[in-house]
Amino acid sequence: MTFEFMWSVIAFSFGMASTPGLNNTVVFASGLNYGFFPTVPYILGVTTGLPLMIVAVAWGLGSFFEAFPQAYLYLRYAGAAYILYLSWKIAAAPLPSKKDGQESEKTGNSPKGKRPTFWNGIVFQWVNPKAWILAMTGSATYIGTDLPPAKLAFYSGTFAAACLLCLAVWCLGGVFSGRFIRSPRVHRIINGAMGLILASSVVSLF
Q: Tell me: the pLDDT tens digits for 125-145?
């Protein structure tokens, strides 16, 4: 591996991980509503699921969907349903009280509501259009068809590190935003906007 290759992968990874996307929307909303530590399992799920997806695509999953497009159609419908479900959970998330926020920071307990989990983070990558772009396009560009183990490990590992860092930053952005929101009405509007942004991504699946 050359320095140019490694630098290109690092730039591509952090560029994709830091820009607005479905995972960043989820962790921002979760940080806003539940706090940082309750969102950590989801962040770890993403950083686990995305490299697994990259490896699976590099080992032939992308070719499988090309050979059997009907299977990918079913995956898109399932993905659309799952994204809409997460959108509704974000839009309808309970408003944290000041006491809830303090408990969340001290004990890791979140306000009442179903916060995103580790398994949500893993599963969500398989219905995330942005994840498919970086897995299929990135694998073809940076790894190639001969699948050199060093390149595959570096590419998937770099994306895991980029996701871990960037998602943590987006989550903290949600946490700190919540500290300045005093109006329940504004909080509900932000939750609704986050849910709407996530739901609108269903269009890109089709």
A: 887 877 877 777 777 777 765
Q: How many CB atoms lie within 10 A of CB 150?
A: 8
Closest C-alpha to 57, from 120, 131, 124, 139: 139
Q: Please state, as a whole number, how many other Cβ atoms lie within 10 Å of the Cβ of residue 65.
A: 17
**Residue 203, both tokens:** 């269009």
For tokens 């009442």, what's the residue? 112
- pTM of whole model > 0.70? yes
Question: Which amino acid is residue 202, in one-letter code?
Answer: V
User: Domain-by-domain residue ranges, the chain?
Assistant: 3-11+29-205
Residue spans of alpha helices (H) in the chain: 3-18, 22-34, 40-56, 62-67, 69-91, 98-107, 118-124, 129-132, 138, 149-180, 184-200, 202-205
Greatest CA span in the chain, whole angstroms?
56
The residue ranking higher by pLDDT, 55 or 111, is 55
pLDDT band at 110 (very low <50, low <70, confident <90, very high): very low
